[in-house]
UniProtKB/TrEMBL annotation, chains A, B:
Source organism (scientific name): Antribacter soli
HTH tetR-type domain boundaries: 13-73
Pfam families: TetR_C_1, TetR_N
Keywords: DNA-binding, Transcription, Transcription regulation
Source taxon at top rank: Bacteria
Name of the molecule in the record: TetR/AcrR family transcriptional regulator
InterPro entries: Homeodomain-like_sf (IPR009057), HTH-type_TetR-like_transc_reg (IPR050109), HTH_TetR (IPR001647), Repressor_TetR_C (IPR004111), Tet_transcr_reg_TetR-rel_C_sf (IPR036271)
Amino acid sequence: MTNIESMRATRAPLTRERVLAAAVALADAEGIAAVTMRRVAGELGVEAMSLYHHLPGKADLLDGLVDVVAAEVATEIAGRDLPAEDWRAEVSARCLTARTVMLRHPWAPGLMGSRSTVPPVVYGLYEGVVGAMVRGGLSYRLAHRALHALGSMVLGFTQEVFRPAEAGGSLEPELAEAGLAAIVDALPYTAAMITTEMHDATDPVLGWCDSQTEFEFTLDLLLDGLERARA
Amino acid sequence: MTNIESMRATRAPLTRERVLAAAVALADAEGIAAVTMRRVAGELGVEAMSLYHHLPGKADLLDGLVDVVAAEVATEIAGRDLPAEDWRAEVSARCLTARTVMLRHPWAPGLMGSRSTVPPVVYGLYEGVVGAMVRGGLSYRLAHRALHALGSMVLGFTQEVFRPAEAGGSLEPELAEAGLAAIVDALPYTAAMITTEMHDATDPVLGWCDSQTEFEFTLDLLLDGLERARA
DNA sequence: ACCTGAACACCGTTCAAGT
DNA sequence: ACCTGAACACCGTTCAAGT
């Protein structure tokens, strides 16, 4: 009896926060498809039906995941000294921070795109970016367009163009299996591009795509364009 | 007996193509979540297990959907006269064509991001864009980076920043329900941006976000930057 | 108040059976 | 060769029952 009592005491009571934390951990470890009511409950040593006392249903669990990730971005940004005097540097830092969090939770961009409402925390993130741009002299119209451009880039860059989903796979096995010669014939420009880039790659082990470099390149391209549009 | 024979005759035999066409129609009409083996089979007047004679499993069905959409982009591009003398105009036309197809199948970008292999048709689309850029004088390195930037934009812009998922929802009901005054207090820049843009909007019915305009703006921003980097 | 077991209507997939 | 019914191991969710 006292044993059971103490076991109950050691097992922290279920809360919305504990459920969401378990779901995030599960999504990070096994992908968003592993996040089922039954699996999440299992991780917490509880039956699936117990979750319904803390969340109305699965839709709210997924909305909650978006919330957690957005809050993580907000916390990360709050913990950094943002260069407030230069709008370009400040916006850049905000986007790069958001990206590092997305890389920790690769399922998050896809999930954000599939939910039907935008959680308040995300509006808070927009506010920071818009504020930096408007204080930097961009019009509201330009800031609005910039928000769409930057947002779709932060969400879109995790969906890799060449090796989507599991970041593990490289292009080479695919090429090998499909027959390199056939590809070179059918896709001469692409083939030349791949061989050129593989040759120039500083780290051939990492592969020929360094998405961090590509992300920063695109970010600069957009910020340069916005700065020019501002003037 | 002859009746049954003739009914069998009128019902076209199941093929991979017919299964995929039914799945695309279902996804367009009810979203990608409605695409289950049982539902697709039902649309074809057949049992779920029959599909396995034409597709190895659900993963291949989803891969097939990506294939169909990519092929649709390729067909659409092949049917247009692309301005070959100007790389900027040609790449722009290719991206805009891809976008119109994505708008017809809003589930496609998310699906492409979640699949683990890139189908050959998609490599064919890349080839067209890379070819245009290289012939236009861009280095392979620049073309590679441009491909990532443009690709993530074409895939990312359907995941709307403000009203994700169902394009039906507007921002206003959300704002109203959350209390406009509270939002204005917490998000002054965002509130000012929304009111300014709503006031300037040419078509207030369409809402304050015109994603086609925003897409074209971002596309031009990127192409301008690439042209400058080329020189 | 919080958790549970049984049940319902769904999934994808296998396998032996029909034609 | 092509389609099917029954079955298995999973889903989300409801509801009456336990403590």
